[in-house]
Amino acid sequence: MTEFTIDDLHIPQSIDAPDALDFIEMTTVRNDIEAEIVGNYDLAYSAAELLPHWLDPYDPKIAYVARVDGRIVARGILNWRIEDDVDEAWLEIEVLAAFRRAGIGAALYDLLATRAAAERLRPWQSYVLHKAADGETLPSPTGFGAVPLADPGTRFLLGRGYELQQVERFSRLPLPLPTRWFDELAERVRVAADAGYRLVRWVGRTPEDRVADLAVLHQRMSTDAPSGGLDYAEEQWDETRVRTLDDLRAASPRLILVTAVEYVPSGTLVAFTELEVPLERERAVSQADTLVLREHRGHGLGMLAKLANLKYLEDTHPGHPSVTTFNAEENRHMLAVNEAIGFMPVGYGGGWKLDVTP
User: Fold this and answer.
1) pTM score, two decimals?
2) Residue 259 in contact with residue 315, Cβ under 8 Å?
3) Range of the domain at 68
4) Residues 20, 160: one domain?
5) Contact criterion met (CB below 8 Å) for 122 and 353
6) Which of 5, 32, 189, 257 meets the CB 3.0–4.6 Å disulfide criterion with 275?
7) Cα of 60 vs its chain's centroid, Å
8) Are residues 271 and 293 part of one domain?
């Protein structure tokens, strides 16, 4: 039987601090686990890139790490929301493949569940990357997508009473884009202008005159994006929260490229999309948020913004091999946009929920 220990994971304030070594090792383990599931390191973060996410005061986290012979082999994370009257908990368990079926995941889960219960958090939810496999699948109750029944994550959560609520598609776009898309972009810019819309772009920190609009767009991401049967209450965004996000992102080596769409008659932003760009050209770029406000849909603004931001990437930071993104399988409109551009499915994630009795 494998002997292991479990400790609290200390979150350092700086990746250069002497107390950052465990966080750095945890990041390596995270990357190795997820690469084994999806087949490559497209989802990998450096410790310096990951740390700002862990320092976000609006998304508090606690974590444990499991060790075998002094080496970190697994991690368990609990995070929750700061909004009033929002009690849902998110639990995440990841174990290196060579150390599964040794009770490590179960021990980590029990610690997280005990903490979530003590904090009176409910329901308990989990987002899991699922390894593609042949055989029987469990369909999403949304009617779109499925996860393999034989997958370790599926078995682990079903065994604890969780129910699948949503499936997300993990997609990859090879770069560079075919030049025909740049001609398409020019035409879409013209059509949008005729309808009263124009593009706005920036890198990194949100321009002062756009902070209030970004607060609205981020808040609407929490209500307008499909969430299946998961509990996801409306987030509260204001200008202070936007600036906090800007500061956290500025602490990361990744650059943020933003393309937004302004509705000229009102002067307000009604759509935006973000790309997270690693400094190393050989690494994949991550698609972050994309949203078109409901009241401005039907004008092709999602495709316009995405194409414009991809062109922005090609113009300013060429040479990256690909862009990766996640989309809810029931979000057929955005998937159609991505498929048209050239994104191909390469994996899936499942959103799971356990209703906990008070």
Assistant:
1) 0.93
2) no
3) 5-170
4) yes
5) no
6) 257
7) 16
8) yes
